[in-house]
Amino acid sequence: MAQTxxxxxxxxxxxxxxxxxxxxxxxxxxxxxxxxxxxxxxEADAQxxxxxxxxxxxxxxxxxxxxxxxxxxxxxxxxxxxASLVLTAIxxxxxxRRIAQLCRARRIPVNAADINDLCDFWFMSTHRDHAVQVAxxxxxxxxxxxxxxxxxxxxxxxxxxxxxxxxxxxxxxRIREADPxxxxxxxxxxxxxxxxxxxxxxxxxRLDADxxxxxxxxYVHEHDPQTVRIAGSIESPAASSGVPSPGPPxxxxxxxxxxxxxxxxxxxAAGRLVLVGAGVGDPELLTVRALRALEAADIVLADKLIPxxxxxxxxxxxxxxxxxxxxxxxxxxxxxxxxLAELARGRTVVRLKQGDPxxxxxxxxxxxxxxxxxxxxxVVPGLSSAISGPGLCGIPVTHRGVAxxxxxxxxxxxxxxxxxxxxxxxxxxxxxxxxVARLERIVELLRAxxxxxxxxVAIVERAGxxxxxxxxxxxxxxxxxxxxxxxxxxxxxxxxxxxxxxSDAAIQDRYLDPSTLGLHSAE
Length: 523
Hints:
Layout: E1 24-28, H1 32-43, E2 47-51, H2 57-64, E3 69-71, E4 85-88, H3 93-106, E5 110-112, E6 125-129, E7 132-136, H4 143-156, H5 161-178, H6 185-198, H7 201-205, H8 209-220, E8 272-277, H9 288-296, E9 299-302, H10 308-311, E10 317-320, H11 328-344, E11 348-353, H12 363-372, E12 378-380, H13 385-392, E13 405-410, E14 428-433, H14 439-448, E15 456-461, E16 469-474, H15 478-485, E17 491-495, H16 503-508
Parallel strand pairs: 1-2, 1-4, 2-3, 4-5, 8-11, 8-12, 9-10, 9-11, 13-14
Antiparallel strand pairs: 6-7, 14-17, 15-16, 15-17
Helix pairs in contact: 1-15, 5-8
């Protein structure tokens, strides 16, 4: 029988790691997209030239720091003479096409932002951790989904993966120096394979100079690497999650709806209502009392943004609020009706709210509503993301000698009003919830209240979830940075000198998006 092989699938991209060190890269454009392209090229140690009449704040900084060469003018055909790679990020589609055609004629690889048919290659969604780079491509079909896939992959990597690679690289270099003979290459490879394939990543990440010396000695004396004793590995159990499928809706109660003037002294319901704060995204950060309430529930009425890992601990039916922009009131009324119907059946109802119910969670409104229906809810507080969210991402909202007060505001007040922000106080940490979608307006508001442009700012996203992320910048640059790296709700804004007080440690944390390293403001 003839031997067969796997057929190629087709329709993919040729994935390579382009070695751009010291290569001249031309970027046409000076906005946020161009800043992202420049950052990627600089990460690859390329020599970057930017051609644009004006630069955004980030590119201005890079020009001042002499990280790039800037020509303050429009593109000229002669700019291609020294380019080995061209990246266009301009709003003029006709000019972008013309530049791409010039590149094709000269056989210069080109990428034109948002014009896929002109691109010789695409930029993928990347995760960077020291020497480790993970890239995800959907071949231009679903770029937003590529970001989500990349976050899931990054969250699944053991903590310290990048450091482990760095340490193995150091050990590999030392072994080659001690035993450079070509005939021993297979022995070197087999010995290192035992480390790479069988040692826990967390253990490899903690190798220090003494451990590397011990491992080198073991190699030289032909000892098994398992005989080398270093500190034990770290256990990092993975949390499973799943969302129970909602059951069929129960009959709605008769009588006036929740949006009306309210009934007059209705009889109390036979069931039990518990208003539970779900805290941040990690189910292990639920309070014991909250967990007991969820275990005893017959039905859980959950906010839309409750993370799946938290819902994964629920064993009963889950009904999720269908809250969408412009329809929050209707969704709230729907939850009220469902709660009254279930309570009338004598069931135990848990109203599960993100964070703490009484911190911008409308918990007080719900207590008053149910009281008008003869029901006194039991309230179980939860961790508020206003305090715990920054803490999970390495930002203490108070720090002696740096920040002695915290102000918590909402960026989504009633009727869509912006928050009322007091004058800037250097020792105050400002936390603004539900605000990242209005980031540009929030920044303008802070600048109007005399907040300095160099003030450290962080966007904390999905705190407590496996894919939580912190984006750091300054008040002057945060809008451009978020425009480049994107945003994933829910998130909050933290502004103040406490943002970077632990920044060196925070950078080592896997929850800090490596794509933003070097963009947070220095203290």
